[in-house]
């Protein structure tokens, strides 16, 4: 069980942060293009999911999975989107993504006077705390499973 | 406490506002902004110095006043006590805070080191103001070696 990578977007589609831990295959396109692709896909899926839902929707789009990986999604009312790719053995991790938002992003970026909102996060503290938090998760193992 | 976040955000905006309207971004302009911040802190410190000491009636000596700053004043403003107080017993005191709340969210090391003094100016004034209400004229400066640890140096001015 492992975590492959993590994206953090703001409400305008700016990629605030990207980290990867175990990624064997790259997309082959430049990083900027990759972020745009990811954001565009999320935007489309969200509206698709709410339009086509046969019942009243509570939380909306949560995750999708393929035969090799699972993509987990969490969005806040302010439009901050946390996207984490893990392998298939991982169940719902909404609380983990919420913790990344509230205890890491809000505490270390929003409350940091030197981090302008709406731009890629430069704070080393945020990067290292996020890294140690993800490595401490029960479903993260140092060897890719 | 939600109030701590309010003060932090307000302080962040104060610093940002003073730096945004810089017509002179060189060292002269910087000094002006730092002294404006320090002046604000001084007036707040004067008021806090009047309002805070309720139970502690008689400060027998300077050291008691400094201890009051480290315990009661720091707890009232930052919800924690100062981590260490040292003195040379000749009017110079060094107050050290190992996890200063206004710096703790910024970095844990050397990133942002040049920007740190801006965020300490108000607090230096705060200390100087509180001391002045309690009858002590002083000069307070701050230094940061690595975030979030910072030291405030208080030099008592003998008239």
TrEMBL record, chain A:
Its main location: endoplasmic reticulum. Keywords: Endoplasmic reticulum, ER-Golgi transport, Golgi apparatus, Transport. GO terms for biological process: endoplasmic reticulum to Golgi vesicle-mediated transport. It is found in: Endoplasmic reticulum; Golgi apparatus, cis-Golgi network. The keyword Ribonucleoprotein does not apply. One of its GO terms (cellular component) is Golgi apparatus. May play a role in vesicular transport from endoplasmic reticulum to Golgi. Belongs to the TRAPP small subunits family. BET5 subfamily. Part of the multisubunit transport protein particle (TRAPP) complex. The heterodimer TRAPPC6B-TRAPPC3 interacts with TRAPPC1 likely providing a core for TRAPP complex formation. This is Trafficking protein particle complex subunit. It comes from Vulpes vulpes (Red fox).
Automatic annotation (TrEMBL), chain B:
This is Trafficking protein particle complex subunit 6A. The gene is TRAPPC6A. Keywords: Endoplasmic reticulum, ER-Golgi transport, Golgi apparatus, Phosphoprotein, Transport. It comes from Vulpes vulpes. It comes from the Eukaryota. The keyword Endoplasmic reticulum applies. PANTHER family: TRAFFICKING PROTEIN PARTICLE COMPLEX SUBUNIT 6A (PTHR12817:SF2), TRAFFICKING PROTEIN PARTICLE COMPLEX SUBUNIT 6B (PTHR12817). InterPro entries: NO_sig/Golgi_transp_ligand-bd, TRAPP_component, TRAPPC6/Trs33. It holds the Pfam family TRAPP. GO terms for cellular component: cis-Golgi network; endoplasmic reticulum; trans-Golgi network; TRAPP complex. The keyword Phosphoprotein applies. Belongs to the TRAPP small subunits family. BET3 subfamily. Gene3D superfamilies: Trafficking protein particle complex subunit 3. Part of the multisubunit transport protein particle (TRAPP) complex. Heterodimer with TRAPPC3. The heterodimer TRAPPC3-TRAPPC6A interacts with TRAPPC2L. Interacts with TRAPPC2L. May play a role in vesicular transport during the biogenesis of melanosomes. One of its GO terms (biological process) is endoplasmic reticulum to Golgi vesicle-mediated transport. It is found in: Endoplasmic reticulum; Golgi apparatus, cis-Golgi network.
């Amino acid at each position: 069980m492992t975590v492959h990578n993590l994206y953090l977007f703001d409400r305008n589609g700016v990629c605030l942060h990207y980290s990867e831990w175990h990624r064997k295959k790259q997309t082959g396109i430049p990083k900027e293009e990759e972020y745009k692709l990811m954001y565009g896909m999320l935007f489309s899926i969200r509206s698709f999911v709410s339009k086509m839902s046969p019942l009243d929707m509570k939380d909306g789009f949560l995750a999708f999975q393929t035969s090799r990986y699972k993509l987990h999604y969490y969005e806040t009312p302010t439009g901050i989107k946390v996207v984490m790719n893990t392998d298939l053995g991982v169940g719902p991790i909404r609380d983990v993504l919420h913790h990344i938002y509230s205890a890491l992003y809000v505490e270390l970026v929003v409350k940091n006077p030197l981090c302008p909102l709406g731009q890629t996060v430069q704070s080393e503290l945020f990067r290292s705390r996020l890294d140690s938090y993800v490595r401490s998760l029960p479903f993260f193992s140092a060897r890719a499973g | 406490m939600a109030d701590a976040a309010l003060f932090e955000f307000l302080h962040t905006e104060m610093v940002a506002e003073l730096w945004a309207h810089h017509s002179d971004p060189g060292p002269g302009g910087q000094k002006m902004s730092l002294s404006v911040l320090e002046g604000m802190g001084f007036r707040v410190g004067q008021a806090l110095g009047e309002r805070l000491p309720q139970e502690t009636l008689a400060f027998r000596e300077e050291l008691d006043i400094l201890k009051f700053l480290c315990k009661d004043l720091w707890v009232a403003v930052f919800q924690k006590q100062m981590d260490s107080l040292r003195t040379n017993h000749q009017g110079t005191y060094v107050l050290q805070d190992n996890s200063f709340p206004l710096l703790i969210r910024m970095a844990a090391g050397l990133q942002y080191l040049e920007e740190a003094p801006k965020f300490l100016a108000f607090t230096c004034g705060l200390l100087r103001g509180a001391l002045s209400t309690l009858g002590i004229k002083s000069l307070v400066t701050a230094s940061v070696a690595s975030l979030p640890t910072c030291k405030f140096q208080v030099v008592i001015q003998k008239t």
